[in-house]
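REQUEST ID: PR-0412
SUBMITTED BY: lab tech R.K.
PRIORITY: routine
TASK: structure prediction, single protein chain
INPUT:
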Amino acid sequence: MYIYIDMILNTTHYNFDHKQIIADLVGGSFSLVQKLKMKGIGSKRMIIDEVSPNMQTMMNRVSDINYANIELRPKGILVMINQGLKNFTWIIPYYQLVIYKVNGSSLHAQGRFIHFRNSKTFKENKKFFDKLLDEKVKYDMQYAIPEFI
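STATUS: complete
OUTPUT:
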């Protein structure tokens, strides 16, 4: 078993080790049948409004707009961030994920955050965020402690 310290990978080029790390942390990709039943597992791209200071190196230095999209996995999500010609993937297991809905949406985990702008592209993803919340609740319910009266 490996211990993963940094959960942000540079996925610009294919790397088999990255695929294994992602599978270990958030599970493999859903099957085609599951993807069809869920009516898709990926968001449309969203505009990044702000990120935590420890993620600034992944943002464009000039005034370009930064984009990201999210992919659902069985035990978490992948946030794919585009910086020019580079791609970064932030791996977030559901047990670490916290979502805030304030003037857009904000994902928090591992001492980092990413805030998505409340724009047309964000509004197009409302159904996706509902699906994301449903998946997180399903995951959390597996580990719920039963109440005793």
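NOTES: The radius of gyration is 16 Å.
REVIEWED BY: pending
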